[in-house]
User: Which sequence fits this backbone?
C-alpha cells in the first residue's frame, strides 16, 4: 500500500507539499509514482521561474506514461533537486525524501488551505483520484 | 465465402450461444434508417483464377522495367535487387505481424529494425536513426517541423535544387502549420538565412544528380543557431562523405533503392537520422537494446512517451507507423551487398552514368545542362528538341527515357534528366545512344 | 534450440561477400576524379557476410516473430485478419512492382485504372463522393483530413473555426493530428454507456468548431447509436464531421459512414482490406470525402477522360491542399486492397461485417463470467473490451499480466491499456477470418488464466515463460538509449 505521511498537504493532481517557513518543498506522492511506474525523465523549471497556482511547472515521464506537474501554490522556484534529474529512480524509491522535486518561495500562503490533509488524500486516491 | 472460416452450422451455434435468434438481432445498435440494404454498388466477386487474370491484364497494360530499359530516376531508382531480399522479407512471420508492441513475441522484427537503425547511422554518419518513416518527402517535412519545435522559430529555408515533389510536400506541411516557407537558390541561400531561420533543407546529390556543396551553408545556419537538414541518396553515401561530416543536424532520404521495388512510387521508405541531442524531440518509432528478466539481450520499442498514443495533442509528431517491412528489406539488402557490394553498386552506377553522359553528349545538339558540377548517377542534358517527343519515340525501342525538365522551370527548357544504375550494361547504354541519335536525326529531316 | 541470434554485425568478417554484382564493362575512372577527392568518404561501417549467412540470420529472426501466419492475433483495433496470398501474387506482378512513377502515363494506363477503380469502390463502400489513396497510414489520413477541413473553412472566409472536438475515448493520433494542423483540441468525456454524451457535445460546440473527430464503432467496440443526431448537431454548429475508419471492418456492407452524416473518413487498407501489416507498415490511409471537400484533395488526382477512356494525373486543382507524398501513395498496397475487394464482391464484404460482429459477440458472451465486460456488457460490434479490474483488485493481477500469460499458451495478447477510459482494458478483436474452433480454444485459455489469476497469480506476474526472451527491462532501454550497435562505430568512425 502507498504511504501518505500525515504531516504533509496534498493536491488533487497528486503533488505533496511540505511547509518550512515561507518555503515549500514539492514532490509527487507515493500513490502517483506507483501509478506511473519506473520514472525515466523529469523536466523541471529553472530556479527563479514564477509559478502560478495550479499552473504546469514540469513533466514527469515513465516508460509508458507522461504526466504534467502542477504547482499546488503560486510563488518563485527557489531550488530544484538537481540530484534526481540523473537519478530519477529516487522518485520511485523515496518520493517524500530524496525524490523531492522543487522548492518554492510562497507568494500567497493562504493557498495552502485549499490543499488536502493526508486523510482526505487517501480517500481521494482510493476513490480513483480524479 | 472467401477467407471466412465459419460454416453455417458454426454461425448458428454461435448465435445460439450469444443468446440471439438471428444475426439481425446483433444489429440492434445500428438505427434502421442507416442500415444498408442489399448489395454494395461494387462489382461481383471473382474466383481466384479469374481474379488473377483480371489483375494480370491490368498489369500487362503497363510498360515495366523488366521488359524495358528504364532511365528514369528523380527519387525512385532501378537498382539491382538480389533474390534473397524478396525471399526473406516476404516470409509471413515478418509480413503478417503487427507493430511490435509485445516485444517478447516480436524479437525478430525488433532486432532487424535495430540493425536497420545501425546501418542508417553507418551510411549517414549520424548518431541516431528512427525505425523509418513514410517516404523522403514527409521525412523532410518532419525534419522541418522538428527544427521549428527545437528552435522555437517559424521560418524554414529550402534550397530550390531539392526535389520539386519534396519541396511541394514540405510546403503543404508548412502551410497547414502556418509556418513560413522560403525558397532559396544556391546563390541566395546565404543571404536568406537569418536569426529567424529554424533550418535549411538541402539535398545532395540534388534533384539534378549533382553534389551540393554543404560546408558554407552549414557554417551559415549554425552561426545563427539553426539546423542543417540534408536529404541524401543512401547508395550515393557508399562513396560520398557522410553528411555528419558537414555537421548536419538531421539527415533524411529515400530508402526505396535499398532493395525495394519502384512500385509506381509507393510504398516507400523514408529514413530519418539525427544528432543524439534531439533524441527527445525526433519523430517516429525507435527500437532500443535492453535485457530481459534473466539478463538476456533483447530489443524493444523505446522512448514511447514522445509518441501520439501517449502524449496525444502534445506529441512530437502525429506519426504512428513506420515502414517496417521496407526497412527490413533494406536491412537484408545492405547485409547481402555488404560494405564492398554497396560500394561496387555505387561505383558501377557512377561509372556507367559518366559513360552514358559522355556518349550522349557526342550526339549533335546534345549538351550538359550543368557541365561544371560533379554528378553521381544522374545528369541533366539539354536536347535540341522537346524531350517528351524523344521519350515517346523511345518506347518503340524498348526504352523508358529520362525525365523532361521543361515543366520544372524556364531555365530548364528541353532539359532531360537521365539516370543510369548498375543494372544497365554497356550494350544497353549504346542502344540508348543509338536510339536517341536516330530520333534526333529523324527530327531534323 | 539456442534462442540467441547475434547481430548481423557480429557475424561480419572482413572481405566476405554476399551478392553477386557485375564487373565494370565501361572504362573506369577514379571516383576521386569524377566526384572530387574531398567529397569522398574514407570508410563505410556495414557488415561483410555471405549470402548463406544472410539467409540463415533473417530466417532465424523470422522464427522469433509472431504473426497472423503463425497463430491467432486478437489485437483490438488492429483488425489482424488473414492476409490472402493472392494479394501478394498480384502485387508482385512486374507490371505493377516494376513501374516508375514518372514514366509516361500512356505506359501506365493499367495502374491508373486500378487506382481510379479502387478510389471509386472505396467511396461506394463508405457512401462518399471521392477518394484519395495518397496517405501512407491512418495517422497520415487524419492529418490530410484536418488539412482539408482547415482549407474548407478558410476558403469560405470562416476563420474563427479553430477548435476540433474529440471524445476522450479516441486514439491518441486524433488529437495529435488535429494539433499538428494548428487546431485547438477540446476533449469531451464519454457517457456511462461508453458513447458520445450528447449534452457534453452540445456544450462543446460553437461558432469556433471546425470539426468533430469520431471513431465509429468507437474504441470501446460500440456503435454510436446517436450518430445521425451527432452529425446533425455538428453541422448545425457549422463544423464538419470526420470519421476515424479504423473500425470499418465492423460496418462493411451493413452500414455506411456517408449515410450517417460524416463528411470525411479515412480507411486503413492494412486493416479492413487485408493488406499485411508488415510489422508496423507499410499501410495506406485512404481518405474518402463528400462532394464539399473534393476540391481540396491532394494533388495529383487520377482522372478519366470519358471520351477517350484514358486516365491521367490532374495537377491543376487550385483549391487542393497540395502534395502529401513523394509520388502517389502506396500503390502496391492499393493493388492488394483492390484484389481483395474484387475477390469478395458485395456479398463477401457483407459477410466480413457479419462474421466479424458474430465472432466478437461470441467471445464477449463466453467470457462474460470470467471477466467484466466494459460498460455493462452491451452488444458490441467487431471487438469487445474486457477489464481486468476484478483480477487486479483480488490478486493484483493486471491486464498486462494476463496478456503476457497468453503468450505462454501461444496466443498473441489483445490490446492493453486502450481505450484509456477503461481501466485495465483488454481489447479483443477476433476478425471474421477466425473459425469457431480457434475462438473456442482462445476462450478456454482465457478462462484458464482467470482461474490462474486467483490460484497462482505469481505465474501471471512473471509471465511469459516460454518466449525467446522474458519481460524486457524497458526502463533500462529508456535510460541507456542503446539505439545502434556501438562497436561498429568505435572502431571505424571516420575522422573529421
Assistant:
Amino acid at each position: 500500500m502507498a504511504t501518505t505521511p500525515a504531516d504533509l498537504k496534498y493536491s488533487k493532481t497528486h503533488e505533496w507539499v511540505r511547509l518550512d517557513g515561507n518555503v515549500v518543498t514539492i514532490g509527487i506522492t507515493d500513490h502517483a509514482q506507483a501509478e506511473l511506474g519506473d520514472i525515466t525523465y523529469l523536466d523541471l523549471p529553472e530556479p527563479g521561474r514564477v509559478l502560478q497556482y495550479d499552473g504546469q511547472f514540469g513533466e514527469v515521464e515513465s516508460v509508458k506514461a507522461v504526466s504534467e506537474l502542477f504547482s499546488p501554490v503560486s510563488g518563485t522556484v527557489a531550488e530544484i533537486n538537481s540530484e534526481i534529474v540523473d537519478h530519477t529512480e529516487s522518485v520511485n524509491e523515496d518520493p517524500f525524501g530524496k525524490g523531492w522535486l522543487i522548492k518554492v518561495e510562497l507568494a500567497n500562503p493562504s493557498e495552502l488551505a485549499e490543499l488536502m490533509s493526508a486523510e482526505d488524500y487517501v480517500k481521494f486516491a482510493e476513490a480513483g483520484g480524479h | 465465402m472467401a477467407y471466412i472460416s465459419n460454416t453455417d452450422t458454426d454461425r448458428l451455434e454461435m448465435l445460439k450461444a450469444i443468446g440471439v435468434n438471428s444475426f439481425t438481432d446483433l444489429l440492434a445498435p445500428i438505427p434502421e434508417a442507416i442500415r444498408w440494404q442489399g448489395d454494395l454498388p461494387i462489382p461481383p466477386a471473382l474466383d481466384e483464377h479469374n481474379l488473377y487474370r483480371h489483375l494480370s491484364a491490368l498489369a500487362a497494360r503497363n510498360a515495366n522495367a523488366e521488359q524495358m530499359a528504364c532511365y528514369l530516376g528523380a527519387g525512385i531508382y532501378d537498382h539491382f535487387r538480389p533474390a534473397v531480399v524478396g525471399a526473406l522479407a516476404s516470409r509471413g512471420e515478418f509480413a503478417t505481424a503487427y507493430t511490435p508492441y509485445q516485444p517478447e513475441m516480436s524479437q525478430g522484427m525488433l532486432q532487424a529494425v535495430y540493425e536497420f537503425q545501425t546501418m542508417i547511422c553507418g551510411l549517414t554518419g549520424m548518431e541516431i536513426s528512427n525505425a523509418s518513416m513514410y517516404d523522403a518527402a514527409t521525412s523532410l517535412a518532419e525534419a522541418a517541423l522538428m527544427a521549428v519545435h527545437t528552435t522555437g522559430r517559424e521560418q524554414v529555408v529550402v534550397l530550390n535544387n531539392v526535389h520539386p515533389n519534396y519541396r511541394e510536400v514540405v510546403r503543404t506541411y508548412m502551410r497547414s502549420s502556418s509556418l513560413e516557407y522560403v525558397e532559396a537558390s544556391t546563390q541566395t541561400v546565404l543571404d536568406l538565412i537569418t536569426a529567424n531561420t529554424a533550418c535549411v533543407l538541402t539535398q545532395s546529390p540534388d534533384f539534378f544528380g549533382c553534389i551540393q556543396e554543404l560546408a558554407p551553408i552549414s557554417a551559415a545556419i549554425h552561426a545563427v543557431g539553426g539546423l542543417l537538414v540534408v536529404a541524401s541518396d543512401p547508395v550515393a553515401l557508399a562513396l560520398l562523405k557522410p553528411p555528419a561530416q558537414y555537421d548536419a543536424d538531421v539527415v533524411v532520404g529515400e530508402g526505396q533503392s535499398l532493395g525495394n521495388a519502384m512500385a509506381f512510387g509507393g510504398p516507400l521508405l523514408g529514413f530519418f537520422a539525427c544528432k543524439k541531442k534531439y533524441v527527445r524531440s525526433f519523430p517516429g518509432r525507435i527500437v532500443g537494446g535492453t535485457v530481459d528478466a534473466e539478463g538476456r539481450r533483447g530489443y524493444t520499442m523505446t522512448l514511447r512517451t514522445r509518441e501520439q498514443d501517449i502524449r496525444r495533442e502534445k506529441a512530437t509528431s502525429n506519426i504512428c507507423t513506420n515502414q517496417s517491412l521496407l526497412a527490413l528489406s533494406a536491412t537484408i539488402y545492405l547485409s547481402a551487398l555488404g560494405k564492398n557490394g554497396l560500394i561496387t553498386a555505387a561505383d558501377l552506377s557512377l561509372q556507367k552514368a559518366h559513360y552514358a553522359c559522355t556518349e550522349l553528349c557526342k550526339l549533335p545538339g546534345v549538351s550538359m545542362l550543368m557541365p561544371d558540377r560533379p554528378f553521381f548517377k544522374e545528369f541533366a542534358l539539354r536536347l535540341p528538341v522537346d524531350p517528351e517527343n524523344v521519350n515517346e519515340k523511345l518506347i518503340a525501342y524498348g526504352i523508358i527515357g529520362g525525365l523532361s525538365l521543361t515543366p520544372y522551370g524556364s531555365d530548364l527548357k528541353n532539359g532531360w534528366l537521365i539516370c543510369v544504375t548498375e543494372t544497365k550494361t554497356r550494350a544497353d547504354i549504346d542502344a540508348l545512344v543509338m536510339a536517341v541519335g536516330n530520333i534526333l536525326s529523324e527530327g531534323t529531316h | 534450440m539456442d534462442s540467441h541470434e547475434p547481430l548481423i554485425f557480429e557475424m561480419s568478417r572482413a572481405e566476405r561477400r554476399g551478392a553477386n554484382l557485375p564487373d565494370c564493362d565501361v572504362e573506369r575512372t577514379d571516383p576521386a576524379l569524377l566526384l572530387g577527392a574531398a567529397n569522398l568518404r574514407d570508410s563505410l561501417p556495414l557488415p561483410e557476410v555471405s549470402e548463406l549467412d544472410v539467409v540463415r540470420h533473417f530466417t532465424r529472426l523470422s522464427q522469433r516473430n509472431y504473426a497472423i501466419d503463425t497463430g491467432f492475433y486478437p489485437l483490438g483495433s488492429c483488425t489482424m485478419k488473414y492476409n490472402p496470398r493472392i494479394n501478394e501474387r498480384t502485387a508482385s506482378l512486374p507490371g505493377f512492382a516494376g513501374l516508375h512513377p514518372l514514366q509516361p502515363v500512356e505506359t501506365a494506363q493499367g495502374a491508373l485504372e486500378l487506382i481510379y477503380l479502387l478510389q471509386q469502390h472505396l467511396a461506394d463502400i463508405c457512401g462518399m463522393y471521392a477518394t484519395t489513396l495518397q496517405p501512407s497510414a491512418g495517422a497520415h489520413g487524419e492529418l490530410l483530413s484536418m488539412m482539408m477541413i482547415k482549407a474548407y473553412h478558410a476558403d469560405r472566409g470562416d476563420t474563427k473555426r479553430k477548435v476540433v472536438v474529440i471524445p476522450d475515448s479516441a486514439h491518441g493520433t486524433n488529437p495529435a493530428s488535429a494539433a499538428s494542423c494548428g487546431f485547438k483540441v477540446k476533449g469531451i468525456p464519454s457517457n456511462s454507456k461508453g458513447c458520445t454524451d450528447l449534452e457534453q457535445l452540445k456544450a462543446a460546440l460553437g461558432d469556433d468548431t471546425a470539426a468533430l473527430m469520431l471513431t465509429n464503432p468507437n474504441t470501446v467496440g460500440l456503435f454510436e447509436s446517436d450518430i445521425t443526431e451527432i452529425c446533425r448537431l455538428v453541422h448545425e454548429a457549422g463544423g464538419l464531421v470526420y470519421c476515424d475508419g479504423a473500425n470499418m471492418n465492423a460496418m462493411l456492407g451493413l452500414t455506411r459512414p456517408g449515410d450517417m452524416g460524416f463528411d470525411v473518413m479515412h480507411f486503413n487498407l492494412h486493416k479492413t482490406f487485408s493488406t499485411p501489416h508488415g510489422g508496423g507498415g507499410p499501410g495506406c490511409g485512404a481518405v474518402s470525402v463528400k462532394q464539399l471537400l473534393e476540391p481540396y484533395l491532394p494533388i495529383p488526382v487520377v482522372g478519366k477522360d470519358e471520351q477517350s477512356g484514358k486516365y491521367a494525373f490532374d495537377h491543376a486543382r487550385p483549391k487542393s491542399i497540395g502534395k502529401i507524398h513523394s509520388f502517389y501513395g502506396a500503390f502496391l498496397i492499393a493493388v492488394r486492397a483492390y484484389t481483395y475487394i474484387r475477390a469478395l464482391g458485395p456479398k463477401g464484404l457483407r459477410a466480413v461485417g457479419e462474421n466479424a460482429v458474430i465472432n466478437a459477440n461470441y467471445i464477449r458472451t463466453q467470457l462474460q463470467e470470467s471477466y467484466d465486460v466494459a460498460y455493462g456488457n452491451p452488444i458490441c460490434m467487431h471487438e469487445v473490451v474486457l477489464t481486468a479490474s476484478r483480477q487486479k483488485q483480488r490478486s493484483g493481477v493486471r491486464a498486462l499480466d494476463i496478456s503476457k500469460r497468453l503468450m505462454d499458451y501461444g496466443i498473441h495478447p489483445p490490446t492493453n491499456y486502450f481505450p484509456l477510459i477503461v481501466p485495465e482494458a483488454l481489447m479483443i478483436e477476433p476478425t471474421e477470418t477466425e473459425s469457431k474452433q480457434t475462438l473456442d480454444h482462445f476462450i478456454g485459455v482465457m478462462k484458464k488464466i482467470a482461474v490462474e489469476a486467483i490460484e497462482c497469480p505469481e505465474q501471471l506476474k512473471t509471465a511469459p515463460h516460454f518466449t525467446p526472451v522474458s519481460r524486457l527491462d524497458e526502463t533500462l532501454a529508456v535510460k541507456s538509449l542503446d539505439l545502434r550497435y556501438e562497436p561498429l562505430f568505435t572502431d571505424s568512425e571516420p575522422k573529421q
Remarks:
- The first strand of chain C starts at residue 130 and ends at 132.
- Chain C has a mean pLDDT of 95.
- Residues 134 and 325 of chain C are 6 Å apart (CA to CA).
